[in-house]
Amino acid sequence: MADAVALEGRSAGLLRIRRPRHLTWALWIPGGVLILLVGACFIGPQIVHIPGPNVVNLSLPHVGLGTPGHLLGTDELGRDLLSRSLYGGQTSFEVGLASVAIGLAIGGLLGLVSGFMGGWVDSVIMRVLDILLAFPSLILALTVATYLGPSERNVIFAIAFFTVPSYARVARSGTLQFKEREFLLAGELSGAGRTHQIFRHVLPNIWGRLMTYGLLTIGVAMIVEASLSFLGLGIRPPQASWGAMIAEGKGYLTIAPQISLVPGAFLFVAITSLNMLGDGIRARYSGGEAW
Amino acid sequence: MSAVAQRPEVAAPLLELRGVSKEFHVPGHRTPLSAVSDVSFSVHDGETLGLVGESGCGKSTTARVIIQAPKPTRGQILLRGVDLASLRGSALRRARRQVQMVFQDPYSSLDPRWKVRDLVAEPLRVNRIGTRAEQVKRVDELLHLVGLNPKQYGDRRPRNLSGGQAQRVGIARALALSPSLVICDEAVSSLDVSIRAQILNLLEDLRTELGLTYLFIAHDLTVVKHVSDWVGVMYLGRLSEYGRSEAIYRSPAHPYTASLLAAVSEMPEADRPEVDEIPSPFNPPSGCRYRTRCPYAQAKCAEEVPELREVAENHRVACHFPLIAH
Q1: Gap from B168 CA to chain A (nearest CA, Å)
Q2: Which CATH code for domain A90-286?
Q3: What number is the ipTM of this complex?
Q4: pTM of the complete model
Q5: Which overall architecture, per CATH, does domain B1-98+212-326 show?
């Protein structure tokens, strides 16, 4: 695939045609939805007057959608579901982004070093990560979360921990692909050290596929956060997160389904958009060299 | 080890290979792959040695072994008398700067994400040679030297260069550290014929201008003919003939060289070899490795490995029955 991209690039060079860089609908639609959603969660509560997420109003428990003052209804304690969903979204996005960033930084670095150095360094790093990878990821996150105790920060660590091996694998396979390219030998001949080779040559060339993979796993991280929170091992009440809110509503599904369904819908839209965006980017920049 | 190609001059060679072998252990094969076997030759300052042979004959491995990537299994590689194979780490890195390489595929040897200017400057930057301003000036000089206008090409990325232009960038990079030896590993093989001549002329001009020494590796004898003072012919990991370029092209002494020079057509039909496949390097033929394809092979060829022997002044051949009289 890399060859095809290189050939395409070459002919493009001769004809002075640049690859069209504008975004197509496959990126626009999910991208737009995500921007709206993130904007609504982080800026929305400041510009639109809505009740606080933890304001209890026992006189108005689980009212339905469209109630004046409570557009998306309230939960069993009379807390505004729109407000809680937006603040919960902040938590979900924070956990998703932060855990991916940490996992990507650690896993990416391990994969780069492992692939570039080869030999026993590679064997040791990859075998240790294989052991981590062999555990079912949710169980692993559960274990870590249980051990560290429920809090937003610990959820981030737990998710980052179990995603490290998969980022390392992506980084390592990319590194191996570029390791045989002659520009690394050329660099070595001119006296470049390992750090220079890894960070100036290999990393920029695999950056694109790491980012794409990271984007795809933000959705997974958000689902894991929701699952952990649903099980009571994630976000601690009264702090809102989509997963925690779905859990809170599970006892009221027959009389007030909106308590679970409203955050569920938010989660669904966010995950679907993230996956579509990741797929769109991957399809567009497959091969990794175009970045 | 006796196959050291000695020259009448007393001056020490710039590069000397002494009995260099490289074996690879390939999973699934019990015997190692013998890529280079007991190769010795030397290259003197200001001269070009052309190393030719079919693909798989070990000429590129020889080049890689010289720059210690990978290190040879046996033998010495002396660069101005210092054995590179014995150096490690930063000492090796420093010594190796004198040897630079121009690669076959210029696109593969240039990082696709870097601009031309940065690619040429990289050797200067990693070695902290000169100030930033001096580096910029030197890069412009180097680009002019290889016939590229820095203003026009400096900010391009490799994918926006033609094959010939990219190879010029590769050459500029190789020259950045003012090396004493430049190894051209099939440097023009992937280029169009018209561009090939331009690059060969450029290399020739650079040699006279900068006093460079080349190790020129090619599978095509005609390419080597124009640039080489000395020619080494390799077959299945061994050096089969070595000598002054004129002598080898005028009167090839090894049947293999003769066949490469298309002298085969002058052979009687019945004499031509029937098997025209290169034997496996995992299990090379005993004695002379060429004997399975050689029309003149006799019993002795299977029993005894022919040593490189002098058949004329500056002309050595590893053949029991060389084509020219002693």
Answers
A1: 14
A2: 1.10.3720.10
A3: 0.81
A4: 0.78
A5: 3-Layer(aba) Sandwich (3.40)
